């Protein structure tokens, strides 16, 4: 390795000659490296060579400088590497692609070193020393750029989440103008003139946040986007194109359809539907009209308490007999007030069902056929 070469040795002098030649041909090497980069990944391929060349030139130049002189100011070089990682993150290059780009660039440099060594008539020992040093200092560069790239990517993702959450809140709470909604919605590839429904759900062990986003069509990079959502107080809230997918594996409260600038009331009703459905529980998309009186009972404790006192408490006071009456009435109502069907399902005589219904009406003061 380079560190094992004695100062003033012929190998070190030859190595210095090789590196100086490579630095002299830096522009051509960078052009070669950019070709490798663009062939290596799609993110690099969509960028113009002029956008790739400056970072490639800085990285290769720093790498050659470290090979030539390991005592070079490491802090300065590392800052340059980190800046390279930040630039690649801003250009939309993923961390995996950036590391593959590093390997592609080093492969281009290796090819150039082979040609230069042959031109200079250098022996295999010099070329081996160069390649070992290039790999060692290349690892240093990869670590520094990857670290900076990860931090920049995280910061960008946090900014994006903040922007998305503000847009979702502005639409669902009615605080954004129609013009602002149209401009920002188009930025996410959404049709501002489309018809949407507000939605509210909550990730579970069965339906994780990522799975829920994919099922609703609001996930990034999961096909055509059908809407937008963000986490608010632990719940996934947002809006999706009509109709809402029926295959969602979690409880999803949905509001009535409408344009983006009129979804505040839709979100209010979606929240009430979600709260009502969660307490039952019900899976999949649920609207208010599917739950009947239940959302009012859940949302208004006074209503729930009044109904309990009026209907349930008198039956519970009868003990097990009252519980049997309640169970029979529940099945009777579910069967659209059909005596025979209810009796068959509960393995009871029709007269027993009839007696329990009459007992319920006596204790509650209600008549089931006089709604």
Q: Could you outline the blueprint of secondary structure elements for this entry?
A:
Blueprint: H1 10-24, H2 26-40, H3 42-45, H4 49-68, H5 74-90, H6 95-120, H7 124-172, H8 178-187, E1 196-201, H9 209-216, E2 227-232, E3 235-241, E4 251-254, H10 264-278, E5 284-287, H11 294-299, H12 301-316, H13 320-334, H14 339-346, H15 350-364
Parallel strand pairs: 4-5
Antiparallel strand pairs: 1-3, 1-4, 2-3
Helix pairs in contact: 1-4, 1-6, 1-7, 2-4, 2-6, 4-5, 4-7, 5-7, 6-7, 12-13, 13-15, 14-15
Oligomer: single chain
Low-confidence stretches are: 1-8
CATH architecture annotation name of the largest domain: Orthogonal Bundle
Structural class: alpha+beta
What best-fitting shape do the alpha-carbon axes yield? elongated
Please give the share of residues in helix: 55-70%
CATH topology of the largest domain: Globin-like
CATH class of the largest domain: Mainly Alpha
The Rg value, from CA coordinates, equals 35 Å
- The structural domain count equals 3
Largest beta sheet, briefly?
A: 5 strands, mixed
**Total of helices:** 15
Strand content: 5-15%
**Secondary-structure element order, N to C:** HHHHHHHHEHEEEHEHHHHH
The largest sheet has its strands arranged as 2-3-1-4-5
Instruction: Report how far the terminal alpha carbons are from each other.
Output: 92 Å
Question: How many strands in all?
Answer: 5
What is the average of the pLDDT values?
87
């Amino acid at each position: 390795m380079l560190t094992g070469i004695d100062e003033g040795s012929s190998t070190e002098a030859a190595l210095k000659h090789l590196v100086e030649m490579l630095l002299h041909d830096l522009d051509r090497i960078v052009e070669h490296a950019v070709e490798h980069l663009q062939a290596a990944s799609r993110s690099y391929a969509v960028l113009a060579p002029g956008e790739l060349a400056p970072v490639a030139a800085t990285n290769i130049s720093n790498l050659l400088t470290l090979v030539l002189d390991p005592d070079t100011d490491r802090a300065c070089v590392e800052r340059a590497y980190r800046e390279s990682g930040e630039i690649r993150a801003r250009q939309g290059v993923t961390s995996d692609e950036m590391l593959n780009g590093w390997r592609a660039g080093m492969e281009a440099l290796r090819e150039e070193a082979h040609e230069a060594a042959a031109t200079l008539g250098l022996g295999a020992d010099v070329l081996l020393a160069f390649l070992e040093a290039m790999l060692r200092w290349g690892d240093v560069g990869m670590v520094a750029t990857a670290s900076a790239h990860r931090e920049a990517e995280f910061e960008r993702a946090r900014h994006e989440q903040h922007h998305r959450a503000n847009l979702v809140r502005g639409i669902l709470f009615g605080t954004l103008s129609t013009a602002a909604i149209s401009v920002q919605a188009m930025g996410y590839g959404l049709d501002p003139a489309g018809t949407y429904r507000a939605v509210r759900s909550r990730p579970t062990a069965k339906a994780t946040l990522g799975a829920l986003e994919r099922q609703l069509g609001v996930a990034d990079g999961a096909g055509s986007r059908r809407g937008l959502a963000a986490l608010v107080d632990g719940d996934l809230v947002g809006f999706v194109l009509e109709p809402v997918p029926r295959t969602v594996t979690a409880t999803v409260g949905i509001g009535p359809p409408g344009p983006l600038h009129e979804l505040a009331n839709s979100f209010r009703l979606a929240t009430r539907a979600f709260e009502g459905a969660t307490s039952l529980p019900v899976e999949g998309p649920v609207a208010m009209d599917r739950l009947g009186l239940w959302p009012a009972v859940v949302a208004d404790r006074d209503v729930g308490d009044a109904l309990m006192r009026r209907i349930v408490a008198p039956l519970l006071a009868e003990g097990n007999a009252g519980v049997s009456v309640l169970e029979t009435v529940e099945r009777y109502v579910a069967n659209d007030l059909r005596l025979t069907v209810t009796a068959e399902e509960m393995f009871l005589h029709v007269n027993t069902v009839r007696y329990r219904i009459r007992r319920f009406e006596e204790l509650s003061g209600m008549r089931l056929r006089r709604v």
